[in-house]
Amino acid sequence: MQMPSDFARQLAGERLTTAEVIYYMPDHPVLLQRFLWQTLDLAPDYPRVHRFLDFWRREIDAVIHSVSVGAHGLVAPARLDISRVVGQLH
């Protein structure tokens, strides 16, 4: 069975989703670190993000401090902004 393309998944309602995980290692609890992860997922339940976080809790020693999730809206054409050179930098 062939997997649907990313474009077909977006047409089916999936959106580009970014999860920011703030975490720390048990041996350094005062040092927070950040991990960014992007995938196509279905808002508002975000099943792929939940599976990823379940995997993290089971398999990774780092402790999750907080998670922020954001998703980009509808499929849209690419945007190109053109500007002119105003000056020179020597």
Structure in words:
- The protein has 90 residues and is α+β, with helices and mostly antiparallel strands.
- The chain has one domain (6-71).
- 21% of the residues lie in helices and 38% in strands.
- It has a three-stranded antiparallel sheet.
- A hairpin with a 2-residue loop joins strand 1 (15-25) and strand 2.
- The model has no long low-confidence stretch (mean pLDDT 85).
Task: Give a quick precis of the structure.
The chain is α+β, with helices and mostly antiparallel strands and 90 residues long.
Search tags:
alpha+beta, single chain, 90 residues, 2 helices
Could you list the spans in which at least 5 consecutive residues all have pLDDT below 50? none
The helix-and-strand class reads alpha+beta
Arithmetic mean of pLDDT: 85
Q: Percent of residues in helical segments?
A: 10-25%
Task: Give me the Rg, rounded.
Answer: 19 Å
N-to-C SSE string, H for helix and E for strand: HEEHE
Which percent band covers the strand fraction? 35-45%
Strand arrangement, major sheet:
2-1-3
What is the count of DSSP helices, taking H or I runs of 4+ residues? 2
For the biggest sheet, the summary is: 3 strands, antiparallel
Could you tell me the number of beta strands?
A: 3
- Counting structural domains, the number is 1
Sum up the overall morphology in one term. flat
Q: What separation lies between the terminal Cα atoms?
A: 58 Å
